[in-house]
Design a protein that fits this description.
11 strands; single chain; Immunoglobulin-like; 1 helix; eleven-stranded mixed β-sheet; mainly beta; binds copper (II) ion; 162 residues
Length: 162
């Protein structure tokens, strides 16, 4: 009988996990040294011209990369935004030169902070209808991504309305 100690078992599990392709519905996408996870957006009020997109990006590589642009069929164009305080008022503006993801760092794009902005909305995000898109990084290149849709006003992907 073959007996495996815990280390061997873990090593085998890691090997198996690495060998298996990720399912298409995985909420995690790898592009180059980057892992893009938990992409979500939310339902917008009627007549809204813009919508925010949120996600986390982890850089597993040794060099910094930058999120420089994106696209989505729901938007005329997509920008990368940051929130800044301007005379006591929160304002958002485009991140000049793209959003840097330092080696080893995880950058969270979330409400009130960095976000992807769907501009010139053609149709607002609708619950139950994931939003397609792409993200382009300076070094890692372009990846397709799917944004899950949270309810109007949600502050996080899983539970809205706080
Ligand atoms: Cu914005």
């Amino acid at each position: 009988m073959i007996r495996l100690d815990l280390h061997t078992t873990l090593a085998l599990a890691a090997l198996l996990a690495a060998a298996l392709p990720l399912p298409a519905s995985a909420s995690e996408v790898r592009v180059g040294d980057l892992i893009v996870a938990n992409a979500w957006t939310r339902v917008t009020p009627p007549g809204a011209r813009v919508a925010g997109g949120f996600l986390t990006i982890t850089n597993t590589g040794k060099a910094a990369d930058r999120l420089v642009s994106g696209t989505s069929p729901i938007a005329g164009h997509v920008e990368i935004h940051e929130m800044t305080m301007d005379g006591g008022v929160m304002k958002m503006r485009e991140v000049a030169g793209g959003l840097e993801i330092a080696p080893g760092a995880t950058v969270e794009l979330k409400p009130g902070s960095y976000h992807v902005m769907f501009m010139d909305l053609k149709s607002g995000p609708m619950e139950g209808k994931p939003v397609a898109g792409t993200l382009t990084f300076e070094k890692a290149g372009t990846t397709a991504i799917t944004f899950e849709v949270a309810p109007l006003g949600a502050k996080s992907p899983a539970h809205g309305m706080n």
